[in-house]
TrEMBL record, chain A:
Superkingdom as given in the UniProt entry: Bacteria
Naturally occurring in which organism (per UniProt): Streptomonospora mangrovi
Protein function: The lipid II isoglutaminyl synthase complex catalyzes the formation of alpha-D-isoglutamine in the cell wall lipid II stem peptide. The GatD subunit catalyzes the hydrolysis of glutamine to glutamate and ammonia. The resulting ammonia molecule is channeled to the active site of MurT.
SUPFAM superfamilies: Class I glutamine amidotransferase-like
Record's protein name: Lipid II isoglutaminyl synthase (glutamine-hydrolyzing) subunit GatD
One Pfam family from the record: GATase_3
Keywords carried by this UniProt record: Cell shape, Cell wall biogenesis/degradation, Glutamine amidotransferase, Hydrolase, Ligase, Peptidoglycan synthesis
Family annotation (HAMAP family): Lipid_II_synth_GatD
Pathway(s) served: Cell wall biogenesis; peptidoglycan biosynthesis
Family indicated by similarity: Belongs to the CobB/CobQ family. GatD subfamily.
Residues reported to bind substrate: 130
From TrEMBL, chain B:
Gene it is expressed from: murT
SUPFAM superfamilies named among the record's database cross-references: MurD-like peptide ligases, catalytic domain
Binding site for Zn(2+): 197, 200, 214, 217
Cross-referenced PANTHER family: LIPID II ISOGLUTAMINYL SYNTHASE (GLUTAMINE-HYDROLYZING) SUBUNIT MURT (PTHR23135:SF7), MUR LIGASE FAMILY MEMBER (PTHR23135)
This protein's name: Lipid II isoglutaminyl synthase (glutamine-hydrolyzing) subunit MurT
Amino acid sequence: MSDTSSVLRIVWIYPDLLSTYGDQGNALILRRRAELRGIKTELVRVLSSDPVPVEGDVYLLGGGEDRPQILAADRLRSDGGLKRAAERGAAVFAVCAGYQIIGESYGDDADNPLPGVGILDVRSGRGETRAVGEIVADIAPELGGGRITGFENHQGRTAVGPSAVPLSRTVTGVGNDGHTEGAYQGQVIGTYLHGPALPRNPHLADLLLRMRVGEIPPLPPSWGETLHQERLAAAL
Amino acid sequence: MSELPLRAQLAAVLGKGAASLSRATGRGDGSVIGGRIALKVEPDLLAKLARGRRLALVSATNGKTTTTRLIAAALRELGPVATNEHGANMPTGHITALSNAPDARNGVLEVDEKYLPRVLRDTNPAVVVLMNLSRDQMDRASEINLLAKKWREALALSETHVVANADDPLVAWAGMGAHYATWVSAGQRWKEDSWCCPECGGHLKREPEPHWECPECGMRRPETTWAVDNRTDAVVDPYEQRWPLRLNLPGDANRANAAIAMATAAAYGIPPERSLPRLQEIRSVAGRYTSVVTDGVEVRLLLAKNPAGWLESFAVLDPPRVPVILSVNAQIPDGKDTSWLWDVDYTVLRGRRVFVMGERRTDLALRLETDEVPFEVADKVSDVITRLKAEQPDITKVDVIANYTAFQQIRAAYGRVQ
């Protein structure tokens, strides 16, 4: 947690631009799983007209349509707060359009490359076909392994550069390129599992929490685990 | 429509035959199959059937079917009306509606958002009615900014008159493409899809409600001539006259639909004193808002397909002691992605007895658990009623909110109630 307080600050970046489908779910589940362990939280919603605070613990970025994505990337680059926060060691969890723009570059609707925020070594462009549907992937063993389940809806294809590592290997679905899904670099994670990726994968939510607060006690199973199992069974 | 060319007449007749067969065999209401067969025989059939009529096209994310029904009721002041009242809102359904009413000079067609530009081009309507745009089934639908842009471009190429909700920035921006417009202040409860300027992407200033404007490019809400006043349950017309609504359909969303319908009727020359009484007669629309009485309990059915719709439904729930059943499926017509459940705030349900049902009830369960709303899991509406009656024999009412196929399943269980 931040040196200055004992509160876990969850910063939701630009819900006015990057909140296409259930992205609020990631913020709500992080907050709940922290509070169930007695960790106080503060959820900060940062609108695109406001500066991004640097002292957050976990930064969340959601999905968005083409134009809001470009606006969000431009504003984040000129603001600089997210990059400084990442350099300070904050955890970042970015989904779909958010995943693409925290990378080195991403493609606009005509697939012209545009510069990203540059906190994750990935480059994204547009694929031939849209990837829509349930996706299942196995998380990198270095991150503790385990299966993740989600829903993807994107036309992006992402190449992971040498400084980053794929977050997972796809079992079904497309992800980055049909083989790997997402990427991470230090405490920065990006994924195509859109919307409520953390509600559907409680262990992924806990991974993010551990990045900031260290070891945390396990929680009794809840509907999150039931949903996780149910979606895995439905997709496989 | 005896002036229809022979081939078009044949197409229309063949379509009707298939529709009857579909109804007789219990496979559907016939709207889609009939139109599909007719289109094969005559690809220009929709344009031919529309010729010489004064049509209104109705499109939005939510409230299309209800508003179409309201407008059709008002237009009956002028005689028979051609309309697709079963909600078959693609060109096949439009063909069926128009072939079924060959002598109706006036018509009102509900149009799927994606098909609006094409149907606008084919039918050359007198009026296009636009109410709202919000996120809906994105695994199969277009992005709404893109939709609004296509609406705007199609309207710019036509001579049609738009009746549109000025309070929804995306809809207003699309409507501004038209050469003629009537602006209605119909309200907007769900704002999560319109924080950004549709013109330049700037962060919209949205105060004081319902005003909005873009500080960056200057785009702003158009001046309105009609307005809903939810607080007093009234519509204010262009002459500043207040019309108490007293609808038999619940909620602000239906007040908005009624205001839009009254403004549309006025564009056809029907004044509020003649349109409103006809709107007040409508009690349910294709099963929506219907109550069925089962085992002495009145079960009210509310259809809600997306976050904006759920928000509107929560606002019309009966007082807190009335239990509510939430039912969610994720079949193709619903959208296979249930992520939108996380966009809705459920905390308003605290203090109410809540049941979750449907194929995706586990998604609902986790969502409610996260918002700390106690709930129970159920398989069927009748099981809930049995359970409630056992504990509370004098129970009289239950509300049900369901998305598309979940709603249809419940409706079918009670004999396709209207």
